[in-house]
Amino acid sequence: MIKDNQKVFNRMHVLMDILITVASYALAYFIRFYIFDSDRQLVGVLPPRDYFIVLIFLVPGYVFLYFYCNVYGPKRTVKRRNELANIVKANTIGLAIYIVVLYLFIREINYSRSMMFIFYVLNIVITSFFRIILRKALRSMRKRGYNLKHVLVVGYSRAAESYIDRLQWNPQWGYSVMGVLDDTVPVDTPYKGVRVKGRIEELQGILEENKLDEIAIALSLKDYSRLEEIVNTCEKSGVHTKFIPDYNSVIPTSPYTEDLMGLPVINIRYVPLSNTGNMVMKRAMDIVGSLFGIIITSPIMLISAIGVKLSGPGPIIFKQERVGLHNEPFFMYKFRSMRQQSEEDEKKAWTVKDDPRVTRIGRFLRRTSLDELPQLFNILKGDMSLVGPRPERTLFVEKFKEEIPRYMVKHQVRPGLTGWAQVNGFRGDTSIRKRIEYDIYYIENWSIGFDIKIILLTFLTGFINKNAY
């Protein structure tokens, strides 16, 4: 059983990191004083003993930081980039503490700063390299049926099906679902090769056989009255137990919880941009970014404006009412890409393929997204942001909010010139439901780094929009 070997594996993991830390430190010392300073004039400043005695405190300190930064957390379902980010975080904190202790508390100014930096880089690179190799080896073993965790699902529900789906899509995680227990679904009912083995009352007997690594409780909402009983049964056996809620359509994937004097409270929606500090940072980024964009693209906007003017009668800038932050309407600016029409005709529908209303220059502007450039002024005004969900017209907002669950969540942040849905291909005439899924993911997982990533992806994936008609 895998749980019998887990403690040994974890200890080996810690031992490997200790050896890597010592090796990285020794290699950094060698590079600094025997390669960069080949005549070894600086070796005498401090004897080697003064450098290597630091390891007595450095090694346990780094092990503690690795635990603190969750470097030793479960690897099966953790993304590689998150694990590497934790390694960088732990080493950065370690280097900062190292410098503070040496120069402020011990006041030893003769320690080589370059050697400390070399150690910092080497430790990150070597540790990350070994983690990647280990991860690949473990995933290869799991795909071949080794190092598996055997799981029993209690309760047949939408959550149970979703859980089984994800485990089967990712065999490298190393989970094997032994079966499902449920009181309403007939025994031997299959779902993608996983069968209902029996009733929930049989759980106690199955746990006594001690052949399971995990229990996944995935009761349907109507059976939640039995949750406490099942959890108590699992905890008496000591088996690791997970709870997979059957209300994932309501609660976000990363819920924000509060502790009210011992009472856990789950917020249905956590929006990082409701924090004042985050709002100020994002707004500052929008102001700087929009000013920079206006200056850089001003020649393109001038040429586009001339082209629109020559395409036919009508204004150069087209204003259209859209719904923004807190459901407040605003006028969004675009270069006019259609022949001038009445307001009633404009409200009838979206633009369709080969729409006769679109001018020749307008078709080019739409395809290249150049018609969106005037929205930089919307961003400067504060109506919009560089990154966020795309704003929609009022009549469509009224329609979609009744048809699409959680549609109105997008109005908890400013609409954007580009967004997570757009860089993933959901632009123009594409699925509104999928677009909302990506918008909500962005809203719940916002960070400055995420905004920068989306802006870079916007440039890397290009501005050509094949769905713009």
Describe the overall structure.
Helix content is 50%, strand content 13%. The chain is an alpha/beta fold. The chain has a six-stranded mixed β-sheet with strand order 3-4-2-1-5-6, with helices on both faces. A hairpin with a 5-residue loop joins strand 9 and strand 10. Helix 1 (2-35) packs antiparallel against helix 5. The chain is flat and about 80 Å long. The N and C termini lie far apart (59 Å).
Average pLDDT, to the nearest integer? Answer: 83
Percent strand equals 5-15%
Helix content: 40-55%
Q: Could you give a short account of the major beta sheet?
A: 6 strands, mixed
Quaternary structure state of the chains depicted: single chain
Given helix and strand content, the structural type is alpha/beta
Chart the SSEs and their pairings.
Elements: H1 2-35, H2 48-52, H3 55-68, H4 80-105, H5 113-143, E1 149-154, H6 158-169, E2 175-181, E3 190-191, E4 194-198, H7 203-208, E5 214-217, H8 227-237, E6 240-243, E7 256-260, E8 263-267, H9 276-310, E9 317-323, E10 329-335, H10 343-346, H11 360-368, H12 375-381, E11 385-387, E12 392-393, H13 394-403, E13 416-418, H14 420-423, H15 432-444, H16 448-461
Parallel strand pairs: 1-2, 1-5, 2-4, 5-6, 11-13
Antiparallel strand pairs: 3-4, 7-8, 9-10, 9-12
